[in-house]
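User: Can you predict the 3D structure for this chain?
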Amino acid sequence: MVTRRMRILLFACIACGSAVAGLQAAADLPPKQVITGDVSTDSASVSLLERQPWAGGPWYYGWGLQSDVYSFGTIPGLEIRRLQDVAAQLTLQYFIKAEEVAAVTLMPGLYFENHPDSSCWDIPIDLETAIPIAKVFNGVIGFSNARFYHHALPIIGFVWDISPRFRLEAVYPEPALVITLRKELELRLAGQLIGGGFETDARPLRTRVEYYAYRVGMNLCYEMGHGLKLSAGGGNEVQREFDFYQAGQRIHAKPEPYAAIEVEWSR
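Assistant: Here is the predicted structure, written as structure tokens:
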């Protein structure tokens, strides 16, 4: 399940001078520390990742922490009001200069409703890599899976640097058209999948649920300098579901509009 964070990265551009450079640091090395916090209408998350080169690079290993909270109003047939997680981040990434082109990420932690215990453990894994095809055209393939996911989520598609200003990220499940308005300003028209797998509180027994919402909207990202980026945007959900697959129950909730703000600092 792609989250904020689900945030599976789109390892798009192997070629130097691609449109990504509009928001990428000019340095030839990736940042050693990245701190991200975002808040939307019904969710919030925070992430800290420390990164070090392995034998001088281009492989880098990283570690950190992350936490997500998803909040829900009154939904007919749904007793859950909140789902959340607290987890570590362990990464192994491959960079070409400052561009990430492959990665494995493990997120061992607790994924629960309100009251965590030892049964709420999970270790989601994300595996992604770029496939070089041409200077301005690259494939992307990977998957995301976890103990509390009903099915593994495939990641597949391509990224096309149409021009220095336009990039098409035709990658399932998070496609985007990226427009570089200025060197420090980027507009994204994109789909976003949020959610994950969790274990609920006992009623009278705990059960597993996979929550996911698919959003479509736009996002404006401004690079303020000194490693600081600010993003803001909004749109509407087109799908929102709670899959209690062990019990054979699925609840389709009414999609809602959303607004989101994200701050990222790296050095």
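Residues 19-266 form a domain with the Porin fold (CATH 2.40.160). Confidence is low (pLDDT under 50) at residues 2-26.
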